[in-house]
Amino acid sequence: MHVDNIKTILIIGSGTMGQQIGFLCAMHGYTVHMYDIKEDALQSAQQRIAKLAEWFEKHNVNNATGALHLIHYFTDASKAAQDVDFVSESVPEDPTLKAKIFNDFNALCPQHAIFTTNTSSLIPSQIAKETGRPDRFLAFHFHDVRTTKIVDVMPHPQTSQEAIQVTIAFAKKLGQIPIVLKKENNGYVFNTMLMTLISSALTLAANEVADTYDIDRSFMGVMGTPIGPFGIMDSIGLD
Question: Which of 44, 83, 187, 215 is 20 to 30 A away from residue 209, measured at CA?
């Protein structure tokens, strides 16, 4: 399979990350099938994706709203899976749930389709067997597409080189910078570093070495960033 053979993307799960990944694909000209078991979830996703398109246009992405017509919404799994070439899953972080979903869609999707998970905490080998296509399965993890172009590519030992290379090439087609992991690691690269930073900041505050304001100021001043570790915790909801 070549990256140019990818035409239609299946997004499983219409939550925040599913919305962002789906819209990113649509902005780059791909047909998107967005699947969720709940009709009201899809209606909410459609409204939020429209707002996401407006955000991109305000930030100088021309005709972002024009990509909306490429996204199609499904509660019927068999229709959602029809003629798809690449699958991105973003459902809750429950390995049993993810395994069942992939097992179900393995019977519905074309055999050439590559399966990926956007999991933030699991490793692909935990559910690879249940996908029915372990050689065409890997983690493909996005961050907030409004603020970064970094995407993690994490294969497991059975992932084929073809699937890895096609996924890397697809990331580049989406305007992303692929970070390819040499081995499986919970938390990928950035999240692993981030948790160490947050742990250190919390230890400094707990030991009353400095207050949270000065801990953030120290980090921001030296690293030249607009936000420090406690600001990050506020933004991602760890406060």
Answer: 187
